[in-house]
Amino acid sequence: MALTSFSFLCFFLFTAMVYYILPQRFQWMILLTASLTFYYISGGWAVLPFLLYGIFISYLGGLLLERTKEGSRKKTLFTWMFVVLTLLPLFLLKYVRFFGFPAPFGPLAPLGISFYTMSILGYVIDVSWGILPAQKNIFRHALFTSYFPQMISGPITRYSQMAEQLFSPHAFSYQQVTFGAQRILWGFFKKLVISERLALAVNLVYDQYPVYQGWYLVVATICFAFQLYTDFSGCMDIVLGVSQVFGISLPENFACPYFSRSISEYWRRWHITLGIWFKEYLFYPLQKSPLWIAFLDWSKKRLGKKRGKKLPLYTGMLVLWFSVGMWHGGSWNFIVGSGLLHWFYIVAGELLTPLWKRLTALFQVRTQVFSWHFFQGLRTFLLVNIGFVFFRAPSLKVALSMLFSMGRVQNPQILFDRSLFQLMTPQDWMIALASLLLLLFVSSLQQKIRIRETLAAQNLVFRWSLYLLLFVAVLIFGCYGGDYDAAAFIYQRF
């Protein structure tokens, strides 16, 4: 059941009505029933056992780890055992082929398994570390695991963020409901008007890349950057809006990432909850582990105190970014494009920082002005787009071939001779451009004001005119058609 489908809207509205009509003490039970129903409708009976397995293993792991003596070898053993057991379905379903083994369950891929696995794995680790108590009620734990708004594409949540919200009563709030509805509408606009339209050009070029070479690939890759962003962030807008209607706040997953001036800043703005998860549960524990401390001591003795700190740091970052790439998919195009390439960018950026400072001082470049910030933003966007070629291409070999074609085939005339109309009609290009300009305007405002609160303070006629205009734009300019797949959120496959 796709988030942009009419059936989901009916399901959501019915759930919301029951949620607020029945006594508040039943609200979490209503959400649990709705979540399991949503999961069954979206994936069928075949995928339900994987979700139930994750619920049971993490629930049992929390109970046993809480009762095991702190600092004992048994607790360490139990922690690793439940980490492995929690990750096992994800490994068998998504990564076993990467290591050369046949997939035991064929092409079966449960809805949102990469997202809810990270959440319950974080729960098990938090209990092991003594950060939070284990949940004694398995049904409440099941709600945390399967909360339906976030099942398709996250965000990745922590139990400490969600428990009080999920299990506390929520009175009906007109502001919460209207703010949630506004965000859902904005998500529909991003997904249906922008992302699905840009997909027309992207899919044509990437599916027929031997035909469309050079600047066709450049244009398609830039289009993909905005297609992916509006698809994923549009999904997040719908998810956070639906949850807000229930009075539950999910963590933000995007913060205008294409305004970033460095790759490090980009990853603080893009897929925020994924980056936080890997830093808190992989990178920081790795840096504090006895093995890494010994590595640090060894490195300092041989390279000196200052340089010796860098080698373990950059090696730990290599493990981190390899894991981020692997999370996106068990193939080298994801490992490179979403992982190792960004590790290279960040490490190279840090190593070259002294050189950049000397060059800017030598040529008297003013670095606190708009022109320099614009250059940094454009440079970051172009570097990110190189990674997107690997992300979108079917394989590492094809991605490298595409990048070679971009540099080798010189056909910039297609930007001016109407050749791009082979990819989309002039009307589609105009709608896409106008929509992206609106997105840029709204994103710029988000840096300065809280848009929904500001709109709420305006006169009734003005704000409702804007809502209706956006609603009509979605109805008229949204891409549906015979080939439209409402379920095809890009990050849903992860």
Task: Indicate the proportion of strand residues.
Answer: under 5%
Question: What shape does the CA trace take?
Answer: globular
| Assembly form of the protein | single chain
Give the strand tally. 0
Mean pLDDT over all positions: 93
What integer value in Å does the Rg equal?
24 Å
Strand-and-helix sequence, N→C? HHHHHHHHHHHHHHHHHHH
Unreliable parts: none
Sheet/helix structural class = mainly alpha
Alpha carbon gap, first and last residue: 16 Å
By DSSP (H or I, 4+ residues per run), the number of helices equals 19
Helix content: over 70%
- Main β-sheet description: none
Tell me what the structure shows.
By secondary structure, the chain is mainly alpha-helical. It is 71% helix and 0% strand. The protein contains 19 helices and no strands. The protein has helices at residues 6-21, 27-43, 48-67, 73-95, 113-128, 138-146, 159-167, 174-207, 215-245, 263-269, 272-288, 290-303, 305-328, 332-362, 370-392, 396-408, 426-446, 451-456, 460-477. The longest helix is centred in the middle third of the chain and has 34 residues, at 174-207.
